[in-house]
Structure formats: structure tokens, C-alpha cells
């Protein structure tokens, strides 16, 4: 008998057996469905999250360096040395601007020393406002896309002007369809005049909300004299990033009085380095989820093996008849292995549907998260489910193949 015909016949026989015991087959497949669905769902969520975060990080541009007190993505607690580090200051930014020959732009960012921050206008309020103080050069970092008005100038920054540029959701939440330009808003008890508004960024993290409130750096320092959480965004000249990083390191070590035998007391990260650090975190998360999902597959595999052993017992006489008319041991093994693979393969396809539902539900909760089921997750999920059937079907298939045809025909 040609191999294709045998494969087709065994597949049809396996499907007939599953149809004859629908509830038993469904319960058997349940662990495989849950395990496969979890793998696919988690894979789609992590893939979407990875895309969203990497787009945000890469939006800083290939020539940008983020200088901060500690690493942007740190998988462990701060070391005693990191906790003892001095905060970055505006004077550090000035030193880089004056001494770094290959740096074209330097912008200082300052965050408030407490959260949450509330922005108000008349009877409207936006909670969890993302207040930060930046310099004029920040507008050229690729993070700003103006909708209305303008960005503040260096003169306004130096004179601590109480002006602000607001994000899309702050504009909508406070003003609706009203033009916000020239209006005064209350941000955490401080009054700022709106001189511009921004479009929602194309790349964001978990959600699409844009609650940014950007004010001049010195205005921010005036409003929050105790704020010390500073980071620097430095843009190098085209093709000069490695040299710029060396110059920044030299300038900061001198500026911050770091002894020659001591390591840097600051951290520098490019967009690609931050992406790599972030992916180290997500890879560990994915590994943990795979291990947890494997428990469901293990339970499903044990269930398949149990049901196949029952099936061998129930079909002992059938096996005897097949052997009596010339079926070889390999034919019996292939029949039962294929039946187990079809059973778990169907479970994998149902798990694919479950994973797709998890991805769509996540997209409803986090509207900007591009949670599409990646092809690798779908293929891997189905292949793993089939592999589970083949692995756990070996013992039942081997037991069926070893049956003595004479004893099997006498079985009642």
C-alpha cells in the first residue's frame, strides 16, 4: 500500500475515533489547548510590547545617547555604588555642550520629585500628567510633533517663563474642541500658559495616552527646587556616535571628579543598547511563561497517553484482526501514533484560536499595543502540540504493536 494512502486511511480512522468519543477527546485535549493557547497568547503580547517599546526607544534617533544616573533597564536592585552616585546636573550638560566637539545637541530633562501630577483647567482635570522640564533643543530630538502653536525658546527658559507645551490627551481632556493657546492651566499647583500642543506620538508604551506637559527646564527647577531626577539627551554628529560617547565619558569623569582608578558614576545608553537591555528582560519573562505553559502541555500529554492506553485495551480485538490479515508491527505503531498526533494537533489548532482571543483581548485593553499573533508562535504552538502527541503516544503504540494476534482475537 502506498505510504500516502496508508497515511490518509490512518488519519481518517483517527478522526472517526475522535468523532465517536467527542467529550472524551475534548477533555483529553484540554491541557494541550490551554498550554498552546498560553504560548501563542504570551508570544503575541510580548511581540507587540517589544515592538511598541523598541519604537519608542529608537525614536530618539541613531545618533542619540541617553545619559542617566543608573541604567535605563536594570534587572536587579541598585548596587551600593549606584545608590551612592551623585545625580546628574544642568552643569554637566553645559560641560558636555562646551567640551564635546562631536556633540551637536544636548538637552537636559528634569522630573518632579513626587507623583501623581494633576493638570487642571476650570472644571476639567487630567490625572497622571507627565510633567517634565526640558530645554529648547529637546524639540529637535524626534520626540516633538507640534499640532498647534510653538515650542518655547531659550530666552523663555533662561527667564523661567511659566509656559507649557501639552500633549494630545491633555489638550482634549482640559479644553475639548477649544483652542488651548494662551490659556492658563494649573499643574500641581503651578500656573503655566499654554503656548503649544503636540500630536500623539506614533510610538508609545502600554497605551496610546499622551499626558505630556513640557515646561522650560529652569521653570521646572523654580517650581520644584528639590527635584533632582535629571537625564541628558545628547545627539552626536552623523557617524560620530562612538567618538561622541568617548568624549562625553571624558567630560563627565572630569566634571564629576571621578578618580582614574574608579568606574564611571553614571550610565550611557544608545537606543540600540536600551533595546538590547529591554529584550534581555522580556526574554526572561518569555522563558518563565514557556515553563508555566509546559505544565499544561505535560498534563495534556499524560491525558493523551492515558486515553490511548484505554483505546488500545478497547480495540484489542481490532488489533488482532489487523495483524491476522497481514498488518506489520510498524503499521500498528503508525496507526496509534498518528491517532495521538491528530488528537493533540486538533488541540493545538483550538489553542491557536484561544491564543488569538487572548491577543485580541489584550489589544482591547491596551489599544496601542500591536498584538498580532506572530507566525513563529502559531507554527511553534501547533508543532509542539503534535510533538506532545507523538511523544506520549509512543508507549501505547508500542504496547498495541506487541500484542499477540492469537491472544488479541480471543479478547472479549
Gist of the model:
This protein has 412 residues and is an alpha+beta fold.
**Mean pLDDT across all residues, rounded?**
81
- Give the proportion of residues in helices: 40-55%
Main beta sheet: strand number and arrangement? 8 strands, mixed
Q: DSSP helix count?
A: 14
How many separate structural domains? 2
Rounded radius of gyration (Å): 32 Å
Shape: elongated
Task: Characterise the protein shown here.
The chain has 2 domains: 186 residues, no CATH class; 180 residues, no CATH class. The strands form 2 sheets. Strands 3, 4, 5, 6, 7, 8, 9 and 10 form an 8-stranded mixed beta sheet that branches. The chain has a 4-stranded antiparallel beta sheet with strand order 2-11-1-12. It is of the alpha+beta class. The longest helix has 44 residues. Helix 1 crosses helix 11, helix 2 packs across helix 11 and helix 4 crosses helix 8. A hairpin with a 2-residue loop joins strand 3 and strand 4. The protein starts with a helix and ends with a helix.
Topology:
Blueprint: H1 3-20, H2 22-58, E1 64-68, H3 80-83, H4 90-99, E2 103-111, E3 119-121, E4 124-126, E5 130-134, E6 146-149, H5 154-158, E7 163-166, H6 168-175, E8 184-187, E9 190-198, E10 212-216, H7 217-223, E11 229-236, H8 241-255, E12 267-270, H9 271-314, H10 316-324, H11 329-365, H12 375-392, H13 394-401, H14 405-410
Parallel strand pairs: 5-10, 7-9
Antiparallel strand pairs: 1-11, 1-12, 2-11, 3-4, 3-8, 6-9, 7-10, 8-9
Helix pairs in contact: 1-11, 2-9, 2-11, 2-12, 4-8, 9-11, 9-12, 9-13, 11-12, 11-13
Amino acid at each position: 500500500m502506498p505510504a500516502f494512502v496508508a497515511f490518509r486511511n490512518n488519519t481518517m480512522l483517527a478522526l472517526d475515533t475522535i468523532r465517536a468519543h467527542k467529550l472524551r477527546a475534548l477533555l483529553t485535549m484540554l491541557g494541550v489547548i490551554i498550554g498552546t493557547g498560553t504560548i501563542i497568547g504570551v508570544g503575541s503580547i510580548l511581540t507587540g510590547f517589544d515592538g511598541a517599546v523598541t519604537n519608542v526607544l529608537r525614536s530618539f534617533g541613531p545618533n542619540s545617547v541617553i545619559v542617566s544616573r543608573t541604567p535605563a533597564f536594570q534587572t536587579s536592585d541598585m548596587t551600593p555604588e549606584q545608590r551612592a552616585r551623585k545625580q546628574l546636573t544642568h552643569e554637566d550638560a553645559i560641560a558636555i555642550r562646551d567640551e564635546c566637539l562631536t556633540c551637536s545637541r544636548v538637552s537636559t530633562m528634569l522630573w518632579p520629585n513626587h507623583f501623581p501630577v494633576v493638570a487642571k483647567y476650570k472644571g476639567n482635570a487630567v490625572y497622571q500628567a507627565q510633567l517634565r522640564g526640558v530645554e529648547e533643543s529637546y524639540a529637535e530630538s524626534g520626540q516633538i510633533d507640534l499640532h498647534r502653536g510653538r515650542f518655547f525658546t531659550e530666552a523663555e527658559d533662561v527667564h523661567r517663563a511659566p509656559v507649557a507645551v501639552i500633549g494630545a490627551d491633555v489638550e482634549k481632556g482640559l479644553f475639548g474642541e477649544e483652542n488651548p493657546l494662551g490659556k492658563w492651566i494649573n499643574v500641581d499647583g503651578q500656573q503655566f500658559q499654554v503656548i503649544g500642543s503636540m500630536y500623539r506620538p506614533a510610538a508609545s508604551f502600554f497605551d496610546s495616552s499622551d499626558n505630556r506637559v513640557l515646561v522650560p527646564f529652569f521653570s521646572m527647577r523654580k517650581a520644584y527646587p528639590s527635584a533632582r531626577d535629571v537625564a541628558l539627551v545628547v545627539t552626536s554628529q552623523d557617524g560620530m556616535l562612538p567618538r561622541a560617547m568617548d568624549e562625553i565619558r571624558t567630560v563627565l569623569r572630569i566634571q564629576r571628579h571621578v578618580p582614574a582608578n574608579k568606574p564611571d558614576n553614571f550610565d550611557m545608553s544608545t537606543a540600540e543598547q536600551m533595546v538590547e537591555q529591554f529584550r534581555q528582560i522580556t526574554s526572561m519573562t518569555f522563558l518563565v511563561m514557556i515553563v508555566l505553559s509546559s505544565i499544561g502541555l505535560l498534563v495534556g500529554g499524560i491525558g493523551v497517553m492515558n486515553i490511548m492506553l484505554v483505546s488500545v485495551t478497547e480495540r484489542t480485538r481490532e488489533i488482532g484482526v489487523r495483524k491476522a490479515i497481514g498488518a506489520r508491527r510498524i503499521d500498528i505503531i503508525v496507526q496509534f501514533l498518528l491517532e495521538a498526533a491528530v488528537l493533540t494537533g486538533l488541540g493545538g489548532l483550538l489553542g491557536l484560536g484561544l491564543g488569538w482571543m487572548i491577543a485580541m483581548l489584550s489589544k482591547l485593553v491596551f489599544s496601542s499595543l500591536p498584538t498580532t499573533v506572530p507566525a513563529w508562535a502559531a507554527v511553534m504552538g501547533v508543532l509542539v502540540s503534535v510533538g506532545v502527541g507523538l511523544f506520549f503516544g509512543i508507549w501505547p503504540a508500542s504496547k498495541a504493536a506487541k500484542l499477540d494476534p492469537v491472544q488479541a482475537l480471543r479478547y472479549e
